[in-house]
Amino acid sequence: MIAFINAKILDGKGGCIPNGSVLIEGSRIRKVGENEEVEIPKQAEVIDLGGRTLMPGLMDAHTHLETTASNNVINEVAQYNLPTRTLRAYWNAMDTIKAGITTVRNVADIGDCVIAVRNMINQKLLPGPRILASGKAINQTGGHASMSTEYQWSKPDAGGSGHCVDGEAECRKAVRMEVAAGADLIKIYVTSGLYDPFLGKPRDEFSKKEIEVLCDEARNSEKPVAAHCHTAKSAKYCIENGVTSIEHGMMINEETLELMRAHGTFWVPTTSVYQAMADGEKYGLGSSAVENSKKALLNQEKMFRKALEMGIKIGIGTDCGGVLINHGDTAKELECLNRWGMTPMDCIKAATSANAELMGISKITGSIEAGKEADLLVIDGDPLKDIAILQNRDKILCVMRGGSYYKDSLKRQ
Taking the C-alpha atoms of 212, 218, 223 and 226 in order, what is their torsion angle to the nearest 10 degrees? Predict the structure, then answer.
C-alpha cells in the first residue's frame, strides 16, 4: 500500500481537496478524502507531499506514436521499415508516459505497429502507457493519407499508412479489416488537411453515403469513430452518423456546434499543432501550410470560444508525432486552450475525466476516485495558477500508472 498525504488533490472532475490523502492498494485507489478522513494502515508507505498537487495522469486523445515530429511528414512516414517503426513507436510511448501522459488514443497507424505495442503493454510484457489504437486510418484514393505519384506517404515495406478505399463495399471491408486487426476505434479521413501541399485549402473527400457506411460498419462492431475533419459540410455528415469525435475542425461553423451539442459529439481541436504550423517558417515548413494555418486559426479560435459558451464536449489531443509537435507535449494544448478562454481547471478536466469519457474508459481511469486505477501525477507547483507548469518535466515529480511508478523524484523521510 502507498499513502499520499498532505496533498492538494485535483480530482479531474472539477473538484479540489486543499489538504487531502489518497490511499493506493495494488493498482487501484482505495480511498480519497481530507487527511483526517483517510485511515492509513500501518503497513502502508506514507509519502508526505507537503502541499504539492496530486492529480490524475494526463491523456492525449490524438497521438501518432508511430511517427516522430517533423517539418516533412511525408518523408518521415516513408523512411522506416515496419520493424524499425514498431520499436520507435514503443520508444515514443515511453517518452510520452514519462512526461505525465498515462493514456493515449492513437488515431492512425502504419502497418498496425501501435496495435502491436499496445498488445505487449496489455500483456504486461513491457511497461508503458495505456493505449487505445485505431490501427490504419481509412481514406479515399488521392485523399489526405493516401499515396500519389508526387507525394508518397509510405513505402510498401513500411506497412502502409492507411486503407485507400472508394465506394461503399470497400469502405465496409476496410473497417472490418481494422476490427479484425484489433482496433479499439476506427479513424477516418473525411477531408484533406492544411498540410497537404497539393491543395490550396481543405476539401471534402468521402461522400455522404461513404461516411454513412463507414460509421454503420463501425457501429456493427461497437467501435467508436474519430473523424479527421475540417469542413462544416463533412462534419455535418459525420455527426449525424454518430462519430464520437471531430478531430481538428478548423473550418467548422455554429451549425456544426449545434449539431455537436445535440448529438453529444466531442471536439478535439488539436490547436497546438496549427499554432506551431502558423509559425512554421522558422522550422522550414512550406508556405502553403503556414498560410493555411494562419487563416484557419482565426475561425477555430472564434468557434472554440463559442463552443465553451455552448458547453460543447472538448477533448484534449495534440497530433503529436505529426507536424512539429513532439511526443509528451500534451500540456502545450492546455496552454493554448487556456489562452482561448478555457479555465485551468477545465483544461485539466478536459485532459483527464472528459478524455476518459471520450475514450470510453471512465469506469477505469480519468479521475481520482475510489476503485479507479491509480494513474496519478505529483506536481511541484499549482497548475491552477500556472497551467504551463505541466510542460515542465522537472516539476512533474511522480508519474504513476496503475500503482506502478514510471517516474519517482519524491524525497522520502
Answer: -40
Strand pairing partners for 24? 2, 29
The answer to whether the 2-57+367-408 and 58-359 domains have the same CATH topology is no
CA gap 161, 401 in Å, rounded: 30
State the pLDDT confidence band at 147, using cuts at 50, 70 and 90: very low
What's the CATH fold of domain 58-359? TIM Barrel (3.20.20)
User: Which residues, listed in sequence order, are joined to residue 130 by a DSSP beta bridge?
Assistant: 103
How many CB atoms neighbour CB 119 within 10 A?
Answer: 15
Ranges of each domain in the chain: 2-57+367-408, 58-359
In 3-state terms the chain splits into helix, strand, coil percentages (rounded to 5) of 40, 25, 40
Instruction: Tell me the residue length of the chain.
Output: 413
pLDDT at 143: 80
> How high is the mean pLDDT of the chain?
92
- Cβ atoms of 94 and 128 within 8 Å: the answer is yes
Of the listed ranges 46-50, 106-110, 259-263, 396-400, the one predicted with least confidence: 106-110
Q: Cα 97 to the chain's mean position, in Å?
A: 13
What does the alpha-carbon distance between residue 91 and residue 175 come to, in Å, rounded to a whole number?
28
Rounded Cα distance, 373 and 403, in Å = 7
For 259-274, the pLDDT digits (tens) are 999 999 999 999 999 9
Assigned superfamily of 2-57+367-408: Urease, subunit C, domain 1 (2.30.40.10)
Look at the pTM and tell me if it is higher than 0.85.
yes
